[in-house]
Structure formats: C-alpha cells, structure tokens
Fold:
Amino acid sequence: MGVKNIIITGIGGQGVLYLSSLLRRALVEKYGAVTGYDVRGGAQRLGHVASIIRFEDSGDAARRLAIDFDDGACDFALALEASELLKFNAKLSSRSLAISDEFIINPTNIRRRDGTYYGFEAIKRHFMAITGKFVHANFRGEAAKKFNGPLSANLIMLGRLLKETGALLGLEDIETACNEEEFKIIKYGFEAI
Structure:
C-alpha cells in the first residue's frame, strides 16, 4: 500500500486521454484525490500523447502528491503503441508491470525516407529485461475482430490492467466510471485476454 504511479502512452488518436479520464474517475471514486499530468504533443498528427496518474491507495487522500514521480517508480504502464513506452525507460524498473499492444507505427521521419524502425520483438526483449512483468497482445487486432473497431483496444487493455492489479481496482470500481458499452469491452479485456 502507498503511492501508485501509472503511465499511459500512445499516439494521437488512440484515446490515451480518454482512457486516462475513465481510470482517473474510477480512482477518485475509490481512493479520493489523484494527481498527474498529460502530454498532448501532436495529438492531431499521430504525435506522442501520454498521461501520468498518481494516487494514494492507503486511504490518505488528503496527502499532497507531486505531479511527477522518481525514476524507477512506475507501478503500471499501458502502451497503446509499443514504441511510445521507450520514452519512459527511466521510469520503469523491476517493480513495473507494463502492458503493451504489439502495434507499432513508424514515425514520420522514418516513413519519409523508407527507413527501418524497431520491430516488436526488439521492443519486447527490451521491456522483458527492465520490467517485473511485461504483458503484450495484439489488442488492436482483437478489438477490430471482436468489436468492429481498433480504438476499442484501449478499453480491452484497461480490462487487462484491472486483472493484473488484483484488488487495487476491480471491474466493480470501473463500472461506475464508464457507460454500458465501454464496460462490456473492459470486461472482455479482463476475462478473455
């Protein structure tokens, strides 16, 4: 018990901030105050987007937390685009649980000159070496197949996060923070992935 630190990252248009707002709403309802910040760099142009969430799970909601946290202190990370999590290497450690989609989009400067970029296997090896646990799947493909839209991947990943966190935040906690359709997708991620 104590302070928990969460990173959600991806590219503009994937729903990083949307997912963050659902998670923050559920955390506030269960634990009280949360803090953190959002990075909206190029959200309209497939640019880097991230959300940092910090909260106290011991019931001390009155405690003031800084908006950022020390290197190596990330508890949970969600990467809607696998290579975006590389920007947070210093925040990850053996205490971190990272969940990543296997989806990668080459940055514009690489696409313009037909260059090569990291493959998912290299990223997977990297995060398996520096985190306590690295969970990955083709969440985007699963969302397109099961829910007719790849943007549901973020909700499926949230369901998997809830499953991995144990009692920290459960399905019953997130249910009041989202609508019925969103909850159905989150529940699928919790139960099936």
